Amino acid sequence: MPPWPRRRHHHHHRPDGGWGPQARTRWYLRWRLQRRIFFTMASTIVATGLIVGLVMSRSASSYKHELRRVGVFVGDRFAHAWDDPMERDGLAREMADDLDVDLRVEDASGAALGSFGRRACTSPTATVPVKRAGVTLGSVAICVDRHSAGPGVLWPLGIALFLLWAFSHRLAHRLAAPMVQLERVARELGSGNMAARVTIDRDMRFGEMPILASMINEMAERIERQLSDQRALLATVSHEIRTPLARMRLLVEFAREGASEKAASSLEELDQEIVGVDALVSELLAASRIDFGALRRTTLVAHDVAQGALDRAKLPLAVLDDQAPGLTLQGDATLVARAVGNLLENARRHGGGVIKLRVMRRGPRIAFEVDDDGPGFARGEEAQVFEPFYRGSGVGEKPTGSVGLGLALVKRIAEAHGGRAFAHNREGGGARVGVEFSIS
Predict the structure, then answer these.
(1) Which of 39, 257, 339, 411 qualifies as a FRET site for 200, CA 20 to 30 Å off?
(2) What is the model's pLDDT at position 293?
(3) At what angle do helices 209-256 and 261-291 cross, to 10 degrees?
(4) Sign of dihedral through CA atoms 249, 252, 257, 261?
(5) Three-state SS for 102?
(6) What mean pLDDT is reported for the chain?
C-alpha cells in the first residue's frame, strides 16, 4: 500500500513573525496592485497635463511672435496719424472698438494723451512704441486682461484634476477588488472551506471577472459535491469493513473452544492480524476526517482527555501529571483523543512502556507529552518518526502490531488544530514524544 498522502498546511504568519505566501499575496492584491493601478493612471494624467502645458507654452511663444508683428503694424498706423490729434484719437477709438481691447495713448515723456475702450488700461498687456524715422513719438499701451482667463480658470481646472484623481482611485479599487475576492475564495477553498464562493457584486458586473468568478464558483460546487460523496462512501465502506472484522473476531473466539494448543496459537495470531486491520481502518478514517475538513470542534477539558486516554490504554491514573488543571481547548474530541492515545500506544509498543503522561500549558498552546522507558531515538530519527509508515531503526522485522501510521496521524491532527508534534530524547534515557494544540 502506498504511503498515506500528507496534507500541507500553510499559515498566514510563520512562528518567527514573518509573512507566509498567503499573507504576502493578500498584501499585494489589497495594497500594491491597487496602488500600482492608481499611480499608473495618475501618472498618465500628469503626463497628459505636461504635454498639454508644453503645447500651450509653444503656442504662447508663437502668440508672442505674432503679437510683436501686430505691434509693428499698430505702431506704423499710429505714426501716420500722430500729428493730427483727431485722426490719432479716431484711430485709437476705432481699434479699441474693433479689437474689443482697452488702449492708452502716451507721448514720448509718458504723459497720457487719452484712454479708449470700456475701462482704463492700468496694467497693459503690451506697449507698442510709435516711431517715425527712428524718432520715438510716443507709445500705445494695450490691455487685453478682461479677455484672459486669469485666476478664474484655475478653479475649473483644479476641480477637473481632482475629479480625475478621485476617478483614478475609484477605478483602481474596482479593478483590484475582484482580485482580492478571488484570492480570498481560493485561500478558503485551499484551507478546506468548500462553502466559500465569489460574490458577484457591482465591481464584477462587466468584463471578464464575472465569467472567471462563475467558473470558480462552479468548480467549488463540484469539489464540494465530490467531497460530500466521498465522505458518504467512506462512512459506508468503513461500516462494511468493520462488520466482517467483528464477525471474524467472534468466529475466532468460537474456534478457540476445544482447539488444540497449536491451533489456539494460530488463532491468536489471526486475532492479532484482525486487530491490526481494524486499527489501520481506524487510522485511515481519522486521517480522512482531516482531509475532508470534517472536524467538529467542541470545548474539551485537558485533564478529561488525558484520563480517558489512560483508561482506554488500561494504564493507572498515577501515570498522569496534570500541570494545568482545569485548562480547556477547542478541538475535535475524537481526533484529540486519538492523538493522545496514539502517543501512549507508541510508548507501549516501541518505548518499553509509559512512564509519565504530562499535561502542561506552553504560551497559547496546551501540550500532552509522554515519557517512555525505551532506548530513545537514534540521531536524526526525531523528525522521521512522524513520517507515514516509518517503523524506526530498532524495530526491524519484529512484529509490533503497528503499521507506522500512529505518530504520522498525531502530527496531522496537531496541525489541523493549529499545533505541532515533537519528539526528542530525555536526559537519563528514554524518549519524550508529545503534541501541542492551540487553546483557542
Answers:
(1) 39
(2) 61
(3) 170
(4) negative
(5) strand
(6) 78
CA dist list (Å): 335 to 155, 282, 292, 297, 311 = 69, 11, 13, 10, 16
Q: pLDDT value at position 303? A: 93
E strand segments, 205-338? 297-301, 320-322, 328-332
pLDDT given for residue 320 in this prediction: 94
Closest CA to 414 of 377, 356, 362: 362
Can you tell me the distance from the alpha carbon of 395 to that of 123, in angstroms, rounded to the nearest whole number? 105
DSSP readout, 317-370? GGGEEESSTT-EEEEEHHHHHHHHHHHHHHHHHHSSSEEEEEEEEETTEEEEEE
Share of the chain above pLDDT 90, in %: 14
Residue type for 106, please? E
Q: What are phi and psi of 282, to 5 degrees?
A: -65, -45
CB 124 within 8 A of CB 142: yes
Question: CA-CA distance, 79 to 327, in Å (whole number)?
Answer: 108
C-alpha–C-alpha distance, residues 434 and 88, integer Å: 111
Which three cell numbers, joined as nine digits, stand for 307? 484520563
pLDDT at 16: 39
The number of CA neighbours under 13 Å toward the Cβ of 233 is 7
Average confidence (pLDDT) over 22-48: 67
- Which residues have a Cβ under 8 Å from the Cβ of 417 and sit 6 or more positions away? 295, 329, 331, 332, 335, 336, 437, 438
Band (pLDDT 50/70/90 cuts) for residue 422 is very high
The per-residue pLDDT for range 136-174, each reduced to its tens digit, is 889 998 887 655 555 555 677 678 777 877 777 777 777
CA 79, CA 129: separation in Å to the nearest integer? Answer: 9
Contact (CB, 8 A) for 350 and 400:
yes
CB atoms under 10 Å from CB of 277, counted, come to: 15
Rounded to whole angstroms, the Cα distance separating 237 from 241 reads: 6
Say if CB 302 and CB 359 are below 8 A apart: yes
